[in-house]
């Protein structure tokens, strides 16, 4: 499985961005997908996850502001980010998990200016 993220960029505080992650290859094996982020000087942090059944989970820091979703074909995942804050600045990584393997994208930079 290969993952490709897009949609990052520079936005002012209070603005919005939508990240996309497109999976290719053996996508039938994917059980769940998610977004993680890595900010300078911090550990990698789970942002949101979504299962093949559509169940979602969010970090407390993004609840009510971010929404994770997947297409019916389950090969594209989105992260709609609203009311962005400077502390959301990070490299955002797409993640996909099968029964035995975890896959990662290359990451996309999100920068929120104050």
Overview of this structure, please?
This protein is mostly beta strands. Strands 2, 4, 5, 6, 9, 10 and 11 form a 7-stranded mixed beta sheet that branches. The chain has a 4-stranded antiparallel beta sheet with strand order 1-3-8-7, with no helix packed on it.
Oligomer: single chain
Q: Please state the structural category.
A: mainly beta
Report Rg. 13 Å
Measure the end-to-end span: 37 Å
* Tally of helical segments: 0
Provide the low-confidence segments as ranges.
none
User: Percent range for helical residues?
Assistant: under 10%
How much of the residues is beta strand, in percent? Answer: over 45%
Give the overall average pLDDT. Answer: 94
The largest pleated sheet is described as: 7 strands, mixed
Name the overall outline.
globular
Count of β-strands: 11
Order of helices and strands: EEEEEEEEEEE
How do the helices and strands line up, and which of them pair or pack?
Blueprint: E1 2-6, E2 9-12, E3 17-24, E4 32-38, E5 45-51, E6 56-58, E7 66-70, E8 76-81, E9 90-97, E10 102-104, E11 108-113
Parallel strand pairs: 2-11
Antiparallel strand pairs: 1-3, 3-8, 4-5, 4-9, 5-6, 7-8, 9-10, 9-11
Q: What key phrases describe this protein's structure?
A:
single chain; mainly beta; seven-stranded mixed sheet; four-stranded antiparallel sheet; 11 strands; 0% helix
Give a brief rundown of this model.
With 114 residues, the protein is mostly beta strands. The protein is 0% helix and 54% strand.
């Amino acid at each position: 499985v290969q993952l490709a993220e897009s949609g990052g960029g520079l936005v002012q505080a209070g603005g919005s961005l939508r990240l996309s992650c497109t999976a290719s290859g053996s996508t039938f094996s994917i059980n769940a997908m998610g977004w993680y982020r890595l900010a300078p000087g911090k550990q990698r942090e789970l942002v949101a996850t979504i299962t093949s059944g559509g169940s979602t989970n969010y970090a407390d820091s993004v609840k009510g502001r971010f929404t994770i979703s997947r297409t019916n074909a389950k090969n594209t995942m989105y992260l709609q980010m609203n009311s962005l804050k400077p502390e959301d600045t990070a490299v955002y990584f797409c993640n996909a998990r099968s029964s035995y393997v975890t896959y990662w994208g290359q990451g996309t930079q999100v920068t929120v200016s104050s």
